[in-house]
Amino acid sequence: MSRIIWKGAIAFGLVNIPVILRPASRSQSLDLDLLDLRDMAPVGYQRINKSTGKPVDKEHIVKGYQYAKDEYVLLNDEDFRQANVEATQTVDIVSFVDAASIPPYYFDTPYYLEPDKRGERGYALLHETMRRTGKAALALVVLRARQHLAAMLVHEDALVLNTMRFADEVLPMSELRLPKAARGKATGAHAREVEMATKLVEDMTEDWAPEQYRDTYRDDLMARIEAKIESGKTHQLTPPSEEEAAPRQGAKVIDMVALLRQSLGKRGKDKQEDESESETESETEPARRKTPARHAAARKQPAAKRTGATSAKRARSSGSKTAGTKRAPARRDSHASAARKSSGTTGKKRAA
């Protein structure tokens, strides 16, 4: 179970619901160390005293607010708590909004809210009310000595608290150069293009299944690391590649409808191959791929190779399932083939 980040209560009008805050996300980035190339010794992150240039031990480090040049007020965790005791212990709901109305760029970090002792009834009440109304609760909460705007959302049986950015932390879109929505212009979307794009979106629409996606670049990087270990090149830096990046092409007129039509055709072909592959694998042997995402697997190998592999699997599968009733057509095919060869040879002799 994930660690407890914070304990407090949800303030819902006059109702207080004791809750526990737990992290709802984790980092899967590779843990890389900094090394000294000369002797492979780790390079640590040292806190340096700017006056003496010497490292400072952790127990000697405190927080301070500079109120005048070289003059500081020292602060510790108790100062942060006593600044506003209630704010540091409460998820204070200030309003409710339609959950779909919150722009996605306001969201920051998700946390799970779990009912604490004697908090189950109030938790269930708030959860069911928000589920029925489809609302999100906007709240203020202090975490790690900083106040956050947060959105409380319903997901399955849980309440999720997602910290948000304040409005002044979001850069305005007015500075962006965006295409106009007007149709018929060079930068606008034409009706035929929208129609074809809508078909592609509908064809690519699936049920939400996040477990089928994964960080395939991390897998590729780990494969490269393992290859360097196996080849004994662990202390050798890879020289820059002689291949240069392809120059960027200038702007040109693109036939969007043709590209969308090709995309739809490719989607249909890939679907048939995926379905045939899955049927063959289930009948012959368990799937060997570790990657659960068929999308990731599709990126790993070219379409031609997948087609060849699928054809081979189909051939093995059809061979293993051939029964007595299906052998007759095969013999007829072989006789037909022999007849064709014979006729071809006869034709050549006649020509000669």
From TrEMBL:
Residues 273-284 have a biased composition (Acidic residues). Transmembrane segments: none annotated. Residues 230-251, 264-352 are annotated as: Disordered. The keyword DNA-binding applies. Keywords: ATP-binding, DNA damage, DNA recombination, DNA repair, DNA-binding, Helicase, Hydrolase, Nucleotide-binding. One of its GO terms (molecular function) is helicase activity. SMART domains: Ku78. Residues 289-298 have a biased composition (Basic residues). Pfam families: Ku. GO terms for biological process: DNA recombination; double-strand break repair via nonhomologous end joining. It comes from the Bacteria. InterPro entries: DNA_bd_Ku70/Ku80, Prok_Ku, SPOC-like_C_dom_sf. Residues 53-181 form the Ku domain. With LigD forms a non-homologous end joining (NHEJ) DNA repair enzyme, which repairs dsDNA breaks with reduced fidelity. Binds linear dsDNA with 5'- and 3'- overhangs but not closed circular dsDNA nor ssDNA. Recruits and stimulates the ligase activity of LigD. Belongs to the prokaryotic Ku family. NCBIfam families: Ku_bact (TIGR02772). Homodimer. Interacts with LigD. This is Non-homologous end joining protein Ku. It comes from Cupriavidus taiwanensis (strain DSM 17343 / BCRC 17206 / CCUG 44338 / CIP 107171 / LMG 19424 / R1).
